[in-house]
Design goal:
The complex is a heterotetramer of chains A (about 300), B (about 525), C (about 675) and D (about 220). In chain A, about 70% of the residues lie in helices and about 0% in strands. Chain A has about 300 residues and is mainly alpha-helical. The longest helix of chain B has about 35 residues, at about 160-190. Chain B contains 21 helices and 2 strands. Chain B has a two-stranded antiparallel ribbon. Chain C is about 75% helix and about 5% strand. Chain C contains 26 helices and 6 strands. Chain C has a 3-stranded antiparallel β-sheet with strand order 3-4-5. In chain C, helix 16 (about 400-415) packs antiparallel against helix 17 (about 420-450). In chain C, about 60% of the residues are buried. With about 220 residues, chain D is mainly alpha-helical. Chain D contains 7 helices and no strands. In chain D, about 55% of the residues are buried. The chains are: A mainly alpha (about 300), B mainly alpha (about 525), C mainly alpha (about 675), D mainly alpha (about 220). At the C-D interface, helix 26 of C face helix 4 and helix 5 of D. Strand 1 (about 55-60) of chain A pairs parallel with strand 6 of chain C, so a sheet runs across the interface.
Chain lengths: ~300, ~525, ~675, ~220
């Protein structure tokens, strides 16, 4: 029962915090541009307003476009429920497998890109395809780093991994650290931050694949995308920074874990925001270089794992 | 005087001269002062070297500074080589530099740089052959590279700097492999020996070589052969050699090719001795054989197609070093002895040839053999010497290389390596063709217009004359002490009793062939 | 169950004969072939399902030749294959009831005949337990399927068919040599004798390697895959489904049979497993990379068969590795993953080919670039195709995910258990699988999106109509199977595990508990059913909320998409090539490999071609040799010199002036001599 | 055993810092990373000294600190100032970072396989680090081979040298100090000479591009 509560808390936490996180990111950007910036709660206002708007569908769009926003948000919610965020163990172990999580992530990506093709708009489609390709580029690195961690911890279950990392039992240490760095890079890409924000790509493709969505669907999609950023960041926090998460499910420990988790997540998101504003936007064609570099790091961590340092 | 003090003096003299020259300002001090110091350094090396060599050849081995330095009869041969060729090329340097200064190719600071690094170069080579500490051995080989970089690049032109850069990068990279080989030997020895501090000394390791780990020793030998083989100019590590030799001033090329390559070969030989004691002679011999045969075949073709005289000579060095390696690869008393004779003979011939190429360049201001014609008409003495040198390097009697090449053929056939002998001899034929082209095309023929008739100065001819005399002497009638010391050195390489080697039936027989062959061609 | 099988074979034979007899009346021929075929398939399905749960049954049916009796072995593995092919055959016949209408003027009688024979010969290959008869039926299977490939009767199908026949024979020869190696070592053509003999390890390895590549050629592994995308699309779509879903599985079945069954006493060498895993990894990546470049819907699907065979082999190879190491969990889970994916692939690939057939039926084209917007016109086909796409992309909770999950677990488990070398191999395999998975998603977004979504890009696409009921029923049946195999994985897994255990002759590994799938050694669980329920609940809730908001605040339809203020145009739409171009940009090296494979293939073909020509032309046409006088005019010395010069010039290229390459030479020399040390010791 | 694992962890840090040296965009950053790496090297010597109880290693670490952390980067930065800070900016390496990292990974692995075949009692506990040392050497070679800027190639030499140094410390911890001093001096001289050469080449040819140094050929 307590596990279920934890899962629900996690979901609520991530869903409710997601607009805040994106608001804070915007604030950070504004501050770095020495602008005043909007309120950190702006995203909540946006969502609320969108929710009350009339929705306009493009003529060509069908079921796929219609189904995509709920599937996007829903899948993210399910992933969020399975991660070991505030306790070291997965609240729902059946959802806590690495491979399951990664393949669940593929569902929204699949639908997202299909929806982009569905509306028959050329701009949306290009954005959708790019989103898809980014997944192609980052997937091998993600899997390899997680495989390193799985081999170091002896399990593909996120909870076991978190426990093993938190108790410093994951061996060999350097391999895990390098894998962590590679995973952080991969997560950064997956979060869709600059210079990897092809899905958003406001300047060149006018909000890319989102162009044909409006009203409540757009609100749901925006929320879903914010949640996705948080989920990916939490995945990193869950497996590579599990320190402080409750090892035993006592209410006090869970409360402490919750506070610490929010702090860690805030740190990660802030770091990502700062990086995002410190780097330049690169041409889409060059993304491969970065992602292959991340893959190289992952391969290095694997070599370290094999030689045991 | 105690011989170990002489050894220290031998090492100290060129170093001191180099430091002294380095301390002098280049602008205000006349060139004569540098020349004087240079000559003093040469004289000291020559005198101390001769004394040391004579003492070692007739008496016991010499140790100095504990066991850090050590000259046995094997090293003595190389000390002699350094002393003789160092002196000759050193003397030749004086008119050569003079000429370059007059031509405006060298300014005072470059002259100073030349003399400083020349002495330093001598020092580093002496250090290499006299080191007993295997890690110092590596350090000194590295030092030979560092001390010659500025000699290669002394002219400061783009090509010279390019050659110098390639030289330093390829050699430091290659020689660094040698350090790993050295370290493996050391670590291996330190595990076995009671006193790990002794494990850096070659002579101390020697008795324990048989107990070392076989696999490690093989790896160590491969690393050493590749690493020091880079410095020795074996294919495929030879790539720095043609560039550096062709861009360096001719005396330096002579010294590089005549001595430095042989010093590196000595280091390889030291490791070969250890490896052969540990894993048996077959594996090291196979390695040397492969490197050698490849070098000979590749370099022979390159010698043939080069039209730049110094590059031609440089590839010829590669070919000859390869031949030395093949000799060591054949092994046995005859092979080793032939290799050692070839080291000495080739050192003399090649420094002769590079000095002569310097003369030719002084007259013709080009290295292109297509443009060099009728040397014998322009500069008769140089021309005659050049023709003799070409014959000598192609291995004709009555020159020293004929003896060693005969030894190689006999030793190879005796060791059952007829196929290798056939391949190498075929390559040597190509080399003969190449040098025959030089004689017919460049030494003989009509002199082109615009080249001033008249030979170079006597100081620029005397060293070559001395060298040629030595070559002929070695080829016609090898001096008894030299023959004996080569026998002793062979004994060291094979780690057999000298007496036993000397009494080995075949060795005696072949020695007879050497002597007889030499007698046969005497007019 | 043998009786049922015999009944099925009899029905097939009857269908074949009847169909041929009724050639003049196409409708009757089709009806006879299809109904009898369905009957046969139903009977064999029943017998196959019965065999899965029963002990192995060995029976001697006698036979016309004196030296080889027709022996059959009906074990659970054979049962599984029979069942899978039966399901596909059933659906294919069902689909054919309407689909074959197009073939009335192309000899539907022959088509029905060959298809019946094809199905029957596949069954016999699976059951046969005698080397001679195995080869006979194997050959029959190749021949009948060849006939089916060329039924279209156009240039393209002849070309594809020819390539298929050549490849099938190369494979056949390798298998035959492998069998004869074993037969000559044990003195009998009976498989029973093979499996009772412990062969010499070298002979066993040779036999395995030959059989692996021979069956691999049938299965479409990478060096031998080129026939697949040419032959499968040429056949009628339901035959493609049967070939891609069923026949290539016989290749995998053969590999398993040789390794685990025939070489049972002498086998189990680690190297075999590594070979299978590496070939599987390479096949999977290259297969999907090839697929991405295709615009022909059926060729694309055929390339995906290469990919999926690769994934199956990853599982099977891991099983062999585990078997060789004595790691029973690994062997069980790996083999089980392979078998599960085998079944899954048969189902979703059959479904997708039927979908492609429907599209072809409705529009007359397979070129995706000219399709588009079919989802509105053919909703059932679209939904079924989408389900197949999701399944083949291994998206949870459908069946592809289940088998890929187990494959991942097996690969990671193998890496955990193995030493340095194993870890490298399996890391390679995992990365290959990851790339494959990601690219498969891309590829099916392309396949589904470009074909079914957007707006129609041609008149044919605009005029499309939903297909007849029997075709829809066929697709729906397979869709349901895919969903069942995914959601009900916890119930199917123990069955697969049991089959794997029977193959390995070891106790079954527990791989499911309750509704959860379990991977013991990697300490992990998952549950497609739970995911499905949660997805249904959460997504449903989200959708309801959104729809409620829509109802409250309005929902309008704007006919045109936004195009920067311009009027949207058909030419603005994203095409299949757009997607492929993007991938090409990022996966340059992989495409390089692909080009390399292509050019190597072309070179090999060229060599064969020239050898063939030379053989055909005989000696008479050789170019006249230069006369003796001509040659004598060149002086020997001159020619020697020119040779020396040119050789020298060639060598001098070694010293190109770049000192960085010189350093590489040094390293090369070092590597050479270190290798020499290894050789010497 | 924890001590030796500390040595091994430091060894891994060496690899990471050397990759940073190789991949850094400008010579200045490379020099700074090199200094960092040398600091790691010094730490490794200290750790190794503590583990093996070899007092020589403390001396080594002191001399390595003086020469490698301070002197060599100083020389290199000075050289960079002489040839102009931006001289090598437009000379990207021949290999993309990913391939470079991949190559390094392969090298580390191959070296590990090679080292694991060696059975030396001295090196049993520090095999990963020994592999790292050997790999370091090859990373240095890689740096020389892939860099277009000759200034960056000096770093290649320095990395090779560091690799040799670590190998020396692991295999020959009891070697006389003089040996170590000899090697260190040698390295310093080599760096000085390379730096002088770079200055001269920059002065004569106005470029640091190694591709321009390919006029002499076979």
């Amino acid at each position: 029962m307590i596990e279920l509560t934890v899962a629900v808390i996690q979901v609520l936490l991530l869903v409710l915090l997601a607009p805040l996180a994106s608001g804070v990111t915007r604030k950070v950007r504004a501050k770095m541009h020495t602008r005043q910036g909007t309120s950190i709660f702006q995203d909540y206002y946006d969502l609320a307003k969108l929710w009350r708007r009339c929705e306009v569908q493009p003529g060509g769009a069908g079921l796929v476009s219609r189904a995509m926003p709920p599937i996007f948000l829903g899948t993210m919610v399910i992933i969020a429920a399975g991660l070991p965020l505030i306790a070291r163990a997965c609240p729902v172990p059946l959802l806590g497998d690495v491979i399951t999580v990664l393949y669940l992530m593929a569902l929204p990506r699949f639908m997202f890109s299909l929806a982009a093709l569905d509306s028959a708009g050329s701009y949306t489609a290009v954005g959708g395809v790019r989103e898809l390709l980014l997944g192609v580029l980052v997937e091998p690195a993600l899997i390899l780093t997680l495989m390193v961690l799985a081999l170091a911890c002896g399990s593909t279950n996120l909870g076991v991994m978190a426990d093993s990392v938190a108790s410093l039992a994951a061996y060999p240490p350097v391999a895990v650290v390098v894998a962590g760095v590679a995973f952080a890079c991969a997560c950064y890409v997956e979060m869709g931050k600059l210079p990897f924000d092809v899905a958003e790509a406001e300047q060149e493709l006018q909000e890319g694949p989102l162009a044909e969505f409006s009203g409540p669907s757009l609100a749901m999609l925006k929320l879903g995308m914010s949640v996705k950023q948080l989920v990916v960041a939490s995945l990193f926090v869950a497996v590579f920074l599990p320190f402080g998460a409750a090892s035993v499910a006592t209410p006090l420990g869970l409360a402490a874990g919750l506070v610490l988790f929010v702090a860690k997540l805030a740190f990660v998101m802030l770091a990502a925001a700062v990086i995002e504003n410190a780097v330049m936007r690169v041409r889409y064609q060059y993304l491969g270089r970065y992602t292959w570099f991340v893959f190289g790091l992952a391969a290095l961590s694997f070599v370290f794992l094999v030689i045991g340092i | 005087m105690d011989m170990s003090q002489i050894l220290v003096a031998l090492l100290a003299a060129p170093l001191a001269a180099a430091l002294a020259m380095a301390a002098l300002p280049s602008k205000s001090v006349p060139r004569a002062a540098f020349v004087a110091l240079h000559v003093a350094s040469l004289a000291a090396v020559c005198a101390a070297g001769t004394a040391l060599v004579v003492s070692v050849l007739t008496g016991p081995e010499v140790y100095a500074l504990g066991a850090w330095f050590h000259v046995d009869r094997l090293a003595a041969l190389f000390v002699a080589l350094i002393a003789v060729i160092g002196t000759c090329t050193g003397v030749y340097s004086i008119p050569y530099v003079q000429h370059d200064v007059e031509e405006g190719r060298l300014d005072p600071s470059q002259v100073k740089q030349y003399y400083v690094f020349f002495s330093l170069f001598l020092f580093s080579m002496l250090l290499t052959v006299a080191s007993n500490n295997i890690i110092m051995m590596w350090v000194s080989v590295e030092l030979t590279t560092l001390s010659t970089v500025f000699l290669v690049g002394v002219y400061g032109t783009k090509l010279a700097l390019e050659a110098a850069w390639k030289y330093v990068i390829v050699c430091t990279a290659g020689v660094a492999f040698g350090l790993f080989g050295t370290l493996l030997v050391y670590a291996n020895a330190a595990d076995i020996m009671a006193d790990a501090h002794q494990a850096v000394f070659w002579t101390a390791i020697l008795p324990y070589a048989g107990q070392m780990d076989h696999g490690l020793m093989m790896i160590a030998f491969v690393f050493a052969a590749i690493g020091f083989g880079t410095k020795a100019g074996l294919f495929p590590m030879h790539t720095w050699l043609p560039d550096a030799h062709s861009e360096a001033p001719s005396p330096v090329s002579g010294l590089l090719s005549g001595v430095l390559l042989k010093c590196a070969m000595l280091v390889v030989l030291r490791f070969l001795i250890l490896a052969a004691l540990c894993v048996g002679p077959e594996f090291p011999q196979v390695v040397m054989m492969i490197l050698g045969v490849l070098s000979v075949c590749y370099a022979a073709l390159m010698v043939y197609r080069q039209s730049d005289i110094k590059r031609k000579l440089a590839y010829s060095s590669c070919e000859n070093v390869g031949l030395v390696a093949v000799c060591f690869g054949i092994g046995g008393p005859i092979g080793i002895a032939a290799g050692l004779i070839h080291c000495i003979g080739h050192g003399l011939v090649k420094s002769l040839m590079f000095c002569l190429s310097g003369n030719v360049m002084m007259k013709y201001r080009t290295r292109d053999l297509g443009a060099i014609r009728g040397v014998v008409r322009v500069a008769p003495v140089t021309g005659a010497l050049l023709a003799a040198g070409c014959l000598a390097i192609a291995g004709f009697p009555p020159f020293a290389l004929f003896v060693s090449e005969m030894g190689f053929v006999l030793g190879g056939v005796a060791a059952g390596q007829a196929a290798v002998v056939a391949i190498v001899v075929a390559a040597l034929v190509v080399v003969i063709m190449a040098f025959a082209h030089v004689i017919t095309g460049s030494v003989l023929g009509e002199a082109p217009d615009g080249v001033e008739r008249g030979d170079v100065g006597p100081l620029a001819l005397a060293p070559e004359a001395v060298l040629l005399a030595l070559i002929v002497w070695m080829g016609v009638a090898m001096p008894g002490p030299l023959a004996a010391s080569i026998g002793d050195a062979t004994g060291i390489v094979l780690q057999q009793d000298m007496q036993e080697v000397a009494h080995d039936g075949l060795f005696v027989e072949i020695s007879g062939v050497f002597a007889g062959g030499a007698e046969g061609v005497r007019p | 169950m043998l009786e049922l099988m015999l009944l099925s074979l009899g029905l097939s034979a009857a269908g074949a004969v009847l169909s041929l007899l009724l050639m003049r009346a196409p409708a009757a021929a089709k009806a006879a072939a299809c109904t009898l075929g369905m009957g046969a398939a139903a009977a064999s399905l029943a017998s196959g399902v019965a065999a899965i749960g029963s002990p192995a049954l060995l029976a001697n049916l006698g036979g016309p030749v004196p030296f080889a009796d027709l022996t059959v072995l009906f074990n659970p593995l054979a049962g599984l294959l029979v069942a899978v092919i039966s399901v596909l055959a059933l659906v294919a016949w069902l689909f054919g009831l309407s689909y074959f209408n197009e073939y009335y003027d192309k000899g539907v009688g022959a088509l029905g005949c060959f298809m019946n024979l094809f199905v029957a010969s596949m069954m016999m290959v699976i059951l046969c337990d005698n080397a001679f008869w195995f080869l006979v039926f194997f050959e029959l299977m190749s021949l009948t399927s060849y006939m089916l490939v060329i039924v279209e009767g156009d240039e393209k199908s002849f070309k594809g068919g020819f390539l298929y026949l050549v490849m099938a024979h190369i494979g056949f020869l390798m298998i035959a040599v492998s069998f004869f190696l074993m037969a000559s070592a044990c003195g009998s053509l009976e498989f029973a004798a093979f499996r009772a003999t412990a062969f010499d390890p070298a002979l066993a390895t040779a036999a395995f390697a030959l059989a692996f590549f021979g069956f691999g050629a049938k299965a479409g592994i990478v060096p031998f895959h080129s026939w697949l995308p040419q032959a499968h699309p040429a056949a009628p779509s339901n035959v493609s489904a049967l070939m891609s879903g069923g026949m290539i599985k016989i290749g995998v079945f053969g590999i398993m049979k040789v390794c685990f069954d025939l070489l049972a006493l002498s086998g189990g060498q680690l190297g075999w497993g590594v070979l299978v895993v590496v070939v599987g990894a390479v096949s999977s990546v290259l297969g999907v990379v090839y697929a991405l470049g295709e615009h022909d819907l059926k060729s694309l699907l055929a390339y995906h068969s290469v990919e999926n065979i690769g994934i199956i082999l990853l599982g099977v190879g891991t099983g062999i590795v585990g078997w060789a190491c004595g790691n029973l969990w690994l062997a069980g889970i790996g083999l089980m993953a392979g078998l599960y994916h085998l079944v899954n692939h048969a189902m979703f690939k059959g479904l997708l080919f039927l979908g492609a057939g429907s599209v072809l039926h409705a529009t007359g084209t397979r070129n995706m670039e000219t399709l588009g917007g079919l989802a509105r016109l053919m909703p059932v086909t679209a939904v079924c195709f989408l389900a197949g796409s999701l399944a083949i992309s291994a998206i949870p909770p459908l069946n592809g995910f289940v088998s890929e999950w187990f494959t991942y677990q097996a690969l990671i488990g193998a890496a955990m258990a193995g030493g340095i070398g194993m870890r490298m191999v399996f890391a390679f395999a995992v990365v290959a699988l990851a790339i494959t998975g990601a690219l498969a998603v891309t590829c099916f977004v392309k396949a589904f999106g470009v074909t079914f979504l957007g707006k129609p890009r041609s008149d044919a696409a605009k005029a499309a109509h939903e297909v007849p009921a029997s075709m829809r029923l066929g697709m729906a049946a397979l869709t349901a199977t895919c969903a069942a195999l995914g959601l009900g994985a916890a119930w199917f897994t123990p069955i697969m595990s049991g089959i794997a255990a029977s193959v390995l002759a070891a106790p079954a590994m527990p791989a499911a508990a309750g509704t959860a799938l379990v991977s013991l050694e990697t300490v992990s669980v998952t549950s497609p059913l739970l995911i499905a329920v949660l997805l249904a609940v959460v997504v449903g809730a989200c959708a309801l909320a959104r729809n409620a908001a829509n109802r409250a605040h309005g929902l309008k339809v704007d006919p045109e998409p936004w195009a920067c203020g311009y009027a949207p145009d058909v030419h603005m739409e994203t095409l299949a090539s757009t997607v492929a171009a993007g991938v090409r940009g990022f996966m340059g090296p992989l495409y390089g490999i692909r080009e390399g494979v292509n050019s190597a293939g072309a070179a090999v073909a060229g060599v064969f071609g020239r050898a063939f020509e030379a053989g055909a032309c005989g000696q008479g046409t050789a170019p006249a040799a230069p006369s003796r006088e001509q040659r004598a005019r060149v002086p020997l010395s001159e020619s020697v010199m020119s040779v020396l010069r040119s050789v020298g010039a060639w060598f001098s290229r070694l010293e190109g002036g770049d000192f960085r390459t010189y350093i590489v030479y040094i390293v090369g020399a070092l590597v050479f001599f270190l290798a020499l040390i290894i050789l010497v010791r | 055993m924890l001590d030796f694992s500390l040595v091994n962890v430091l060894g891994a840090c060496l690899i990471i810092t050397s990759m940073a040296v190789v991949l850094a965009r400008t010579g200045r950053v490379s020099a700074q990373f090199y200094a960092l790496q040398s600091a790691v090297l010094v730490a490794l010597f200290v750790a190794l000294g503590a583990v093996t109880g070899s007092t020589e290693l403390y001396l080594w670490s002191a001399s390595a600190f003086a020469t490698k952390v301070l002197l060599v980067p100083g020389i290199l930065l000075f050289t960079l100032r002489k040839v102009g800070d931006s001289a090598d900016v437009d000379l990207p390496p021949k290999l993309s970072p990913m391939k470079c990292v991949g190559l390094v990974a392969v090298e580390v692995f191959v070296c590990f396989v090679a080292v694991s075949g060696i059975d030396l009692p001295t090196a049993a506990a520090v095999k990963p680090t020994l592999a790292v040392a050997l790999a370091h050497f090859f990373i240095g070679l890689t740096c020389i081979v892939i860099q277009r800027s000759i200034f960056k190639q000096i770093f290649g030499y320095c990395l090779m040298e560091n690799g040799s140094h670590v190998a020396l410390a692991l295999l020959a911890p009891q070697a006389p100090e003089l040996v170590e001093v000899g090697i260190a001096t040698d390295a310093i001289f080599a760096v000085i000479i390379l730096a002088v050469m770079v200055c001269r080449i920059a002065r004569t040819t106005h470029t640091l591009d190694a591709d321009d140094l390919a006029e002499l050929k076979g």
